[in-house]
Amino acid sequence: MAPSRSIVFLVLSLWGSVHSFQPLFTLNGKSTTHRDITRQAILRKTAEVCRDIAASEGRPFSLAIDNALTVEKVQSACSGNSTSVLSTVRFHTSIAIMYFSNALVDVVYALSEEHHFDDETFKGGREVLTTDVAAVKASVKLENYMAGRIILGRACHSLQDFYSHSNWVELGKTSPYSALITPDQNMTNLAGPDVATCRNCTNGDCANNLLPDLLQQGLLTSGYFNIFSSKKPAGKCSHGGSFDRTSKKDPIGGINKDTVSSSHGPLHQQAADLAVNATVELLENIRLAVGDTNFLRLMGLSQSTVLCFVIDTTGSMSDDIAEAKRVSFEIIDKKRGTQQEPSAYILVPFNDPSVGPLVLTTDADKFKAEINKLSASGGGDIPEMCLSGLQLALTAAPPSSEIFVFTDAPAKDADLKSTVSALIESTKSVVTFMLTDVLASRRRRSVPGQWARDGSSRAMNQVAAQLYRDLAKASGGQAIDVTKSDLSAATTVIEDSSTSAVVNVFQVVSNPGKPDKFNFTVDGSIKNMTIYITGTSSLTFNISSPSGASQSSSVSSGPLAAMTTAGNLRRLRLHSDNQTGLWEIDVNSNNPYSVKVIGQSSVNFIYNLVEPHEGTHGDYSLKEGRPLTGGNATVLVTVTSDAVKITEVTLYDSSGPTEVIGTLLPQDDGNILVTFTDIPAGDFVLRIKGGDSTGSRSTTNSFQRQASTQIKPSSISVTAQLNGTSIEPGSSISVPFTVASMSNGAVNQNASGTFTVNAQNDRSYTSNSPTSVTMSGGRANGTVSLTVPSSASSGTVVTLTITAQNSAATDINYTVLRFSVTAKVTDVTRPVCDVVSTTGNCSSSVCSSSQWGLTANISDGVNGTGIDSLTVRQGNGTLNTSTSISGGVNITVASYSASCCSPSVELKIVDKVGNVRLCTGQVKAAAATTAAPANTTANSTAFGLHSVSVRHSLWCALLLPFFWW
Ligand SMILES: *[C@@H]1O[C@H](CO)[C@@H](O)[C@H](O)[C@H]1NC(C)=O
Ligand SMILES: *[C@@H]1O[C@H](CO)[C@@H](O)[C@H](O)[C@H]1NC(C)=O
Ligand SMILES: *[C@@H]1O[C@H](CO)[C@@H](O)[C@H](O)[C@H]1NC(C)=O
Ligand SMILES: *[C@@H]1O[C@H](CO)[C@@H](O)[C@H](O)[C@H]1NC(C)=O
Predict the structure, then answer these.
(1) I want to staple 665 with a disulfide (CB 3.0 to 4.6 A). Which of 12, 143, 493, 673 is the partner?
(2) What is the CATH number of the domain that holds 420?
(3) Whose CA is nearest to atom 12 of ligand 4?
């Protein structure tokens, strides 16, 4: 019988702390969490890949790969001798996406035994892994790295749980169970359904509860777990712990190693260490399939931002398109081949009614070709589908990207405002609008008679422009109004933002505007400081530097800065000397204005709203949506430098001004949990202040940073009750959700009325949802259904945003849900490599004087998807291929030849779904140069995998100490 939903969700909220490695945090600090395991594995494998790349390019690499790796150390080592300012924001952000997705498995798949390798579901668990791993590889092929990270985080969870929930560690194993990620390998030695595996623990001591017979025979089992029923097959082990009812039944007790105080707590660290190594092995498997460059992209090891344009392509936009082309080409040509080259390019054209298609590529030339194809045509009847285009960009770009929207028309799809706001807040992306001629009294696209009523069209344009200003403000971007002829002066903001390590030092929006003075601290790490001021032409200002120099708005080239003006934007590039200390800007305007101060620095921070599990044992999960007015909010803050320490985190609303000071709870790994209580209504931004690594804040070492995205508390809560995060092509998912009216953080049971509901997905998949829900007892329930077409590609992610608005239209809240499209994998077998001959003789003492060769037949079998790539992974020879057909199977014949100075070869063969075969060979009688046993013959991993793995390791040990697996 299915448990009632409310019980399930009560239990789910308790779950994270009781049935898995702790997802994110531990109270006692002694237990290792999924977050620790995932981060350690990512750092280790990323460092190894960077080391291998450095070795292949003959560059030095000095980082020791051990348990003391930090994001900063790895990024710095991987960046070689780069002289630009380094930022670890992207890497930190990517790792966070992976561990939050990992942690979500405990919430969403709480009752799925496969996702945790409970109940001896080894085959089921491996199927889950196989599907997800193939989807990660497919995501990378689609260059959809965001999707890849989300799916990879989920896969890591199941893989890691195996080491806590099974008896693998108790069997004395010291290396990962590779069959879990090698689906064509048989899983042997599984304890059968009738095999007893445990006996009673004695007086609560479970150290010896696994049956000796089981251990002697080396049989694999895992604990049964159930929170509703104590039923389990006779003689089987339980998971253990207070929530596991099965562990109260004979045989009593459990075997999990989730924390140091679990049933098998003394083995916790061993299990966690093996889980790290297993995760490293999984990452190596993915690396082999996708290649080193793409692997590093997947990990987010990138200095640079994406270049993201959303462009109106209606008839009047040809000048704007030409300018977008010019500025993007300039950025591309200037940065190509440097670490500042954009990590990806995104282009979303829109007009009416069409939006897209979205172009997402890492290939600068492909982007150039796509932007070259744009032409302004059609239109005539404004408005256009601007927000739909922006929605696409927001879900495709990595978090914290800056998106530039070019348009000269109002948005026709203004009803998407709440969805777009939700996505801006969820992704923390910054949206800057280049609004050309929007406020001009005569629109060039006007068709005589149609938009001739200048008065009314202008009024409407003011309203329309306000929508863009609101979105810019919510995101920390700018709404730049320029004439088409001035546009090229305004696009310098795009060049400014596409340099590396851009940080936000200070930002304020005053609306309605009033004269005000603002102070901000500039630290010694800041380079290329730039100030933007937007406002009407009557705005004046005065800037004073720490040394007492000042410059007013009437001076374009003064003692402090060089100023350029384009439309409503003034850009001041500060001179580089004497910047450290307290600055002041004095603005005089009674119209809306904004001030933004940026620079380049490696000192920055990332943050995510998290929420405690109910009945908490100290753990949290990611919170999507706005915090509650009058309630508490917790933020996980990560600073991106080892050299500084955060001493103060506040929520700041300049309109009050109101400042809510957070309570800091530092974690072992340098992250900080910050809690704010009783948050009032307002438009806040997160501000951090700090000093050097000891926290000292003298005038010379204090720093401040400010998040771009606004945090707006809401009195509405929107929660979805997910029972899965992956959907197969051609199937549907139902998402029940609850909207509640909240007062001081609790449901207001006296509230009544309706909420307007809007459920939007970014892929235009068929979706059904109520357009409003009616409260009873302060709550209202609804269900959204989403259908994924059978043509959807595995490895994509669909983002579903559910927003709810109160009937007075004064308040909204939302939740953002991301589902991966994952298809069942039919080709689970690796390609086959059959070495048919080795030729040549390398016995001569001068290796360069002779050659050797190898011929191998390669295929992906009758049911395979086919060979996708064949590359030489190790060896300095040349590879030629030809194809033939044998027995209805396509055979690739690989002919490799090399000098005797390169006496071994490793070929990498990848099939179309990413199954990888490594195929090694070496010349006969190469004893003198390789120290391999005499008369060793060519070898292939096609058959007898096990023995070849051993051989491969031997080779690694002898020749390539770093190619371990
Ligand atoms: C440093 O970088 C330059 C330019 O990228 C390169 O030519 C040089 O070889 C590098 N030096 C080292 C030691 O990596
Ligand atoms: C994990 O791998 C590292 C590096 O190969 C090795 O030194 C360590 O002993 C392994 N840990 C376990 C628990 O097997
Ligand atoms: C795996 O098991 C299947 C069925 O038991 C068997 O047919 C197959 O040969 C085995 N494969 C290997 C590589 O041992
Ligand atoms: C295990 O313990 C339970 C409860 O103490 C007891 O009823 C049961 O007989 C024990 N089983 C064995 C095999 O000793």
Answers:
(1) 673
(2) 3.40.50.410
(3) 200
Measure 212 CA to ligand 4 centroid, in angstroms. 18
Looking from the CA of residue 199, the nearest atom of ligand 4 is 13
**CB of 272 closer than 8 Å to CB of 36:** yes
Instruction: Say if ligand 2 is within 6 A of residue 203 CB.
Output: no
Domain termination site, one of 638, 671, 706: 706
What's residue 618's pLDDT? 58
Q: How far apart are CA 471 and CA 18, in angstroms?
A: 41
Ligand 2: residue of 44, 277, 963, 964 to mutate (most ligand atoms within 8 A of CB) is: 277
CA 175 to centroid of ligand 2, rounded, Å:
7
Domain shared by 280 and 338, yes or no: no
Cα of 289 vs centre of ligand 2, distance in Å, is 23
Same domain, 319 and 440: yes
Is 9 within a domain?
no
CA-based radius of gyration for the chain? 30
**Among candidate residues 584, 601, 618, the one where a domain is terminated:** 601
E strand or H helix that includes residue 581: strand 581-588
User: Interhelix angle for 71-78 vs 89-108, to 10°?
Assistant: 130
Confidence of residue 15 (pLDDT cuts 50, 70, 90): very low
Contact 746, 712 (CB under 8 A): no
User: What's the rounded mean pLDDT across residues 487-501?
Assistant: 85
3-state secondary structure of 559: coil
Q: Is residue 581 in contact with ligand 1, taking CB distance under 6 Å? A: no
Q: What secondary structure does DSSP assign to 514-534, as a single string?
A: --EEEEEEE-TT-EEEEEEEE
| Sheet arrangement for strand 889-899 | 832-840, 851-859, 889-899, 878-886
Omega before residue 680 within 30° of 0, cis: no
Greater pLDDT, 616 or 624: 624
> Ligand nearest 84 Cα, by number?
1
Task: Tell me which of 273, 956, 963 to substitute to probe ligand 2's pocket, judged by most ligand atoms within 8 Å of the beta carbon.
Answer: 273
Q: What is the pTM of this model?
A: 0.89
The two structure tokens encoding residue 844: 């001569």
Say whether both 196 and 259 belong to one domain.
yes
| Strand 527-534, strand 633-639: pairing | unpaired
Is residue 54 within 6 Å of ligand 1 at its C-beta? Answer: no
| Ligand closest in space to the Cα of 179 | 3
**Centroid of ligand 3 to alpha carbon of 862 (angstroms):** 17
Distance between CA atoms of residues 303 and 500, nearest Å? 6
Compare 138 and 111 and report the one with higher pLDDT.
Answer: 138
**Which residue's CA is minimally distant from atom 7 of ligand 2?**
66
Share of the chain above pLDDT 90, in %: 64
408-418 pLDDT, tens digit per residue, is: 888 888 888 98
Decide if 425 contacts 627 (C-beta within 8 A).
Answer: no
The alpha carbon of 259 and the centre of ligand 2 are apart by a number of angstroms equal to 20
**865 CA distance to ligand 3 middle (Å):** 20
Ligand 1 close to Cβ of residue 4 (< 6 A):
no
Kindly state whether residues 76 and 97 are assigned to the same domain. yes
Q: What's at 28, amino acid-wise?
A: N
- C-alpha 188 to ligand 3 mean position (Å): 10
**CA 252 to the chain's CA centroid:** 42
CA–CA distance, 118 with 224 (Å, rounded to integer): 6
**Segments in 29-70 forming alpha helices (H):** 34-56
810 lines ligand 1 (CB under 6 A): no
Number of structural domains in the chain: 6
Contacts (Cβ under 8 Å, ≥6 apart) of 96: 606, 608, 638
Tokens of 588: 């005089």
80 in contact with ligand 1, CB cutoff 6 A:
yes
Which of 395, 402, 412, 355 is CA-nearest to residue 801? 395
Nearest to 611 by CA among 629, 623, 602: 623
Nearest to 21 by CA among 12, 35, 34, 11: 34
Euclidean distance between CA atoms 875 and 871, whole angstroms: 10
Token pair belonging to 837: 């001959």
